[in-house]
Specification:
Distance between the termini: 25 Å
Order of helices and strands: EHEHEHEEHEEEEEEHHEHHH
Shape: globular
Helix content: 25-40%
Oligomer: single chain
Radius of gyration: 19 Å
Structural class: alpha/beta
Number of strands: 12
């Protein structure tokens, strides 16, 4: 695990961006500073994100793909998992890393993640995501269980640690810092598109754990979370709250079918109530919106208990060869 990573190991970084062109610009600026020499960047973005890439003059240096369309509405798909899978499809690197468009990766982030895969037993890796002020890990390494709940995973300082998953217990994979062997992730079908805005990473982590695969935790592979964005328009907030409920309903069906869902559902409702009250105090929503939005959360849970969960098919090879990104 301490050996230098061979420069010949190719790595793709996938970034999905919707409605945050300024954040995407900052994210790409940090990806240009990565110290791993054999890197390509795959961006799956809305028109505003594509325009940001063009403004940077990077169109010919990375793989840019439009966000997929919803087959029913014709609008941009709200499935983050679907967009990530599109990025995975285009990624030609042996290792595929994912980060969020509002995250800023430190220069050694990718090289350290890739180095973990020099140990042949490692199939996934994750680093630390620091708070927007940069003053500490947030939330740090964690386990996720079959109810979708997380608990701390103790690490020894800056030491790399390996953790074998087991059914119902997996290393949490934060959206801003996770990496996989492409072959393994593609064979698993990537991310489950049933999870449109939340819990897709937790679902994937538990699917990896069910196969007892090994995940590496690298405290020094760090990315910093961006500052909170302005509140979504009310319509988008309603859709997001609904989908958070649906995500938990689907997650519990997949991973805790024989468990009482009450604990997990109550935890989600309490967390979202706290969030909405903070938004109300900040003047972002009206007092009457809190109960209405919590009702949508409950409706989402009901939807998630019935939404179709389609089988995941393997992801095929990329349509284009590896495209080195100049650093």
């Amino acid at each position: 695990m301490t050996a230098a990573v061979p420069a010949a190991v190719t790595a793709s970084v996938v970034v999905v961006s919707r409605g945050r062109p300024a954040a995407l610009t900052r994210c790409l600026a940090t990806l240009r500073l990565q110290d791993h020499p054999a890197t390509e960047i795959v961006v799956v973005a809305c028109p505003a994100g594509a325009a940001a890439v063009a403004a940077l003059g990077l169109e010919s240096y990375l793989k840019l793909r439009p966000l997929p369309r919803d087959p029913l509405t014709g609008g941009l798909s709200d499935s983050l998992a679907h967009a990530r899978n599109l990025g995975l499809q285009e990624a030609a690197g042996e290792i595929v890393a994912f980060t969020a468009d509002d995250a800023m990766a430190e220069p050694p982030w990718l090289g350290r993640l890739v180095a973990a895969f020099m140990d042949s037993q490692v199939e996934a890796a994750t680093g630390m995501v620091r708070a927007p002020d940069g003053l500490g890990p947030e939330p740090g390494a964690a386990w996720v269980d079959a109810l979708g709940q997380v608990r701390p995973l103790e690490t020894e300082g800056t030491m790399v640690s390996l953790h074998q998953g087991a059914p119902g217990s997996a290393v949490h994979l934060p959206a801003a810092s996770m990496a996989f062997r492409r072959e393994t992730l593609a064979a698993m079908g990537g991310f489950d598109p049933a999870f449109r805005v939340a819990m897709g990473g937790r679902d994937l982590a538990l699917r990896l754990a069910a196969q007892e695969l090994v995940t590496a935790v690298l405290p020094l592979a760090q990315a910093q979370q961006g500052a909170p964005a302005p509140s979504n328009p009310p319509r988008d907030l309603r859709a997001e709250i609904f989908e958070r409920g649906a995500a938990l309903g689907i997650f519990l069906r997949k991973h805790a079918a024989r468990r009482d869902p009450a604990e997990a559902e109550a935890a989600l409702q309490a967390a979202q109530r706290r969030r909405l009250i903070r938004a109300m105090v900040a003047g972002e929503i009206m007092p009457g919106d809190v109960d209405r939005l919590l009702a949508l959360l409950a409706a989402g849970l009901t939807e998630g208990r019935a939404r179709e969960i389609a089988p995941l098919l393997p992801v095929g090879p990329p349509s284009e060869p590896f495209r080195p990104f100049p650093g």
